[in-house]
Design goal:
The chain has helices at residues 3-15, 48-58, 72-77, 85-95, 103-112, 143-156, 171-181, 191-197, 210-225, 242-249, 252-263; strands at 22-27, 62-65, 121-126, 136-141, 185-187, 204-208. It folds into two domains: 3-225, no CATH class; 236-264, no CATH class. It is of the alpha+beta class. It is built from eleven helices and six strands. The protein is globular, with a radius of gyration of 21 Å. The longest helix has 16 residues, at 210-225.
Length: 264
């Protein structure tokens, strides 16, 4: 114990996030929830976003099964209820009264959803309380914070990251996408999340498997060592950038500039 607590505290030091990371776990058997002490269960109808709010802002660890009163759409995204053509058709028609122009468009969204495999229980809670082993880690931050976090991952091993936008129900863009692919996934929060999760207008979400979380921190340490850190230094819109470029990139930028001039 103490591993994720230490990593979470270091992340806060490096990125100054408004709230701590949230851990997400999936259990094949709902009885596994009994191993977690002090589990909170919603007594009324709720959305998955409200479970995240409880973890982020209230420090609660929330257990959820198919017997709980979570909104059915959230249940299916999280694998607590199976998906059928009937359920997809019903959701498509529901969405056609609001977010989409037709049931056909709603069905296109249904078909595109990444969905967490069916299981009996899920749990979300503050990562740094270490009450369960996370399958996915969710981090909420401003674009500059999320961008630097992803740059930390690239500092360790480069890969071009992609993101998706499902529209309403966008928690699938981060959590479900990361779970089914094993890759980081960035999300632009949807209207429901801003209403029920109380995400701020300037917040994004990134979902990471634990391996990527540790990789990001390792890269952030190295970037900080050379002066690349949060908050981003303000240089100025009309400033002479040459001294800054020389400091960050050493003499390599000068050599590259000379080569460019020679080629002309």
């Amino acid at each position: 114990m103490g591993h994720f607590r230490e990593l979470g505290e270091e992340l806060q030091c490096l990125l100054r996030l408004k709230t701590d990371p949230v851990a997400y776990g999936r259990y094949e058997q709902k009885d596994d929830l009994d191993k977690i002490d002090g589990l909170f269960r919603f007594p009324h109808m709720f959305s998955f976003g409200q479970a995240l709010f409880a973890a982020r802002f209230q420090g609660l660890t929330v257990g959820i099964t198919a017997e709980d009163k979570m909104f059915a759409r959230c249940m299916r995204i999280n694998g607590l209820l199976p998906v059928s053509m009937e359920s997809m058709d019903a959701e498509a028609k529901m969405l056609a009264t609001t977010w989409f122009a037709s049931p056909e468009d709603g069905m296109e969204q249904q078909k595109a959803y990444p969905r967490i495999p069916v299981a009996e229980a899920i749990v979300v809670g503050p990562l740094m309380k270490e009450e369960f082993e996370p399958d996915i880690i969710l981090i909420f931050g401003k674009p500059a914070q999320i961008s630097l976090l992803m740059s930390g991952m690239q500092r360790e091993k480069y890969e071009r990251f992609q993101f998706f936008f499902m529209g309403e129900g966008a928690c699938a863009d981060s959590l479900a996408q990361s779970y089914v692919t094993g890759k980081p996934a960035v999300e632009i929060p949807c209207g429901g999340e801003r209403s029920f999760s109380q995400l701020a207008d300037d917040e994004l979400i990134i979902a990471l498997p634990p391996f990527y979380f540790e990789r990001a921190l390792s890269g952030l340490r190295k970037l900080r060592h050379i002066g690349i850190k949060y908050p981003t230094a303000s240089i100025g819109g009309i400033a002479d950038i040459e001294p800054i470029m020389k400091r960050v990139y050493s003499n390599t930028i000068e050599a590259a500039m000379r080569k460019g001039k020679a080629a002309e």
